[in-house]
Design a protein that fits this description.
Elements lengths: L1 E3 L2 E3 L10 H7 L4 H16 L7 H11 L8 H15 L3 H12 L4 H11 L8 H6 L12 H20 L2 H13 L7 H11 L2
Antiparallel strand pairs: 1-2
Helix pairs in contact: 2-3, 4-5, 5-6, 5-8, 9-10
Length: 198
């Protein structure tokens, strides 16, 4: 088992086991989300100020289901994306700065911002967390920020561990065969498949 922050993860007790049947069933379902994700990353690749582009923001909001206020929350969020890019924030700093800007510990959105700048980083998503046997601390937990940082570190380690297994290698190879033109990281391929395993 591996320790990350306050979290001990034993891969043997994960609710999900990556098996080839589940991977094969999930792969075709990945296509719509993958197309949206590639659209986001195309902006990132071609425009150094992508975070100011209304089309990028629409694509990001659509893929990541952003329902926060377009008047108050979103301008703060995308301004933070600009600063995080310029200053190369790590995940804990991204989480802290989003809290400073919005007054909320936004585990999922901080990870989505961070993963846009670091495509090999995992996204904190309820479906993926459930599949991996992880749980976010409650919103009232006084140590919520530190625990979210621990969850992100645990998720990063779990992704690396899964990708090193025979099933993880099968997943990546199958993904590359199914979507040969999709330039995504192995971690993103895993993330997209895990999201489809319900």
């Amino acid at each position: 088992s591996t320790r990350s922050g306050n979290f001990r993860i034993n891969p043997l007790t994960m609710p999900i086991t990556l098996d080839r049947k589940k991977i094969d069933e999930a792969l075709p379902k990945v296509a719509p989300g993958l197309a949206k994700y590639l659209r986001i990353m195309a902006f990132v690749a071609k425009d150094p100020r992508y975070y100011d582009d209304p089309d990028f923001r629409r694509a990001f909001n659509g893929f990541y289901r952003v329902r926060r206020s377009a008047q108050t929350w979103q301008p703060q969020f995308f301004a933070l994306m600009a600063r995080a890019k310029a200053q190369n924030f790590d995940f804990p700093r991204t989480l802290f700065e989003l809290f400073a800007a919005t007054g909320r510990v936004e585990a999922s959105f901080a990870s989505k911002l961070y993963a846009t700048l670091h495509p090999n980083a995992p996204v904190i998503d309820s479906v993926v967390l459930e599949n991996l046997g992880l749980k976010l601390p409650s919103v009232t937990d006084p140590n919520r920020q530190a625990k979210v940082v621990g969850i992100h570190a645990a998720l990063t380690k779990t992704f690396a561990d899964l990708l090193a297994t025979a099933e993880g290698k099968y997943l990546v190879a199958s993904f590359r065969t199914a979507y040969p033109k999709a330039a995504v990281t192995d971690e993103k391929a895993l993330d997209l498949v895990l999201w489809q395993i319900r």
